[in-house]
Each structure stands twice: as C-alpha cells, then as structure tokens.
Amino acid sequence: xxxxxxxxxxxxxxxxxxxxxxxxxxxxxxxxxxxxxxxxxxxxxxxxxxxxxxxxxxxxxxxxxxxxxxxxxxxxxxxxxxxxxxxxxxxxxxxxxxxxxxxxxxxxxxxxxxxxxxxxxxxxxxxxxxxxxxxxxxxxxxxxxxxxxxxxx
Length: 153
What we know:
- By secondary structure, the chain is an alpha+beta fold.
- It is 36% helix and 18% strand.
- The protein contains five helices and eight strands.
- The strands form two sheets. The protein has a five-stranded antiparallel sheet with strand order 4-3-2-1-8. Strands 5-7-6 form a three-stranded antiparallel sheet.
- A hairpin with a 4-residue loop joins strand 2 (44-47) and strand 3 (52-55).
- Helix 2 packs across helix 3 and helix 2 (64-74) packs across helix 4 (98-112).
- 33% of the residues are buried.
C-alpha cells in the first residue's frame, strides 16, 4: 500500500520525499508491499526470499539480518535512515550493541562490492545514519525494459 505522499502505509517509515528518492518511489512502494519480491539495487539483483544477491556472475548468500537492512534501506532509497530507525526496523525490540549495525552494514557493503570511502550503494551520513544511494527498481520493471531494449537479462 502507498499513502498519498508516495510512502508505504502502515510501515512505520514515515513519509518518503519522492524528490529525494530519485524517481524510485514506485520501487520503494513495491518493495514495501512484498518483502520477498526480487528487486534490483544498482547493478545487483536481490532475491530476499532466499537471501541471495547476484552481482555480475557471482551469487552471494547474505545473512538474514544483512538482507533485512538492505530491504529496509531499499524501501526508502535516497533518504537518510537513522541508526535508531534501522535498529528498530530490523532488530525490533531486541537490545543490540552499537557495533551490531556497523558490522551488518559492513557485510552489506562487502556483498555489494561497495566502498565506505567512495560509496556507490550505501552512504554513511555522520551522526545521522545511512542512505541507499544506488537506484532501486522492481525486478519485473528491470526485465521489461531490458526485453524492450533487446537485452539478455
């Protein structure tokens, strides 16, 4: 479900600023509707239901928490998500140490082939949180546009 502002309803994420999402609002709503639906982040294919990420020819298995962090960020591409919101959204009521989220984001960056110093996927916003800066698209949309252009995806 999407509210009038373009954000997922009932998700506890607040309202998405569509201009900040770089035209990914539809993808954000799509990912929010079905947590197991495959999607694309940048040049990577993400398969949440089986905790897999395909980068080029390599398919990686992600830990469930790493996948949950990726999904949480992908629901709000381009938006700064605070550490507190990420911890609440992924770990729920569990008390987690400060380093738990940092380690999980580091694992996510490694899987994406990202670099914290020159990020292409996950950007750290000092004293504020994290932001997914790569474009997010539903896999169906990606495949449809690839078929129209004659690609072999």
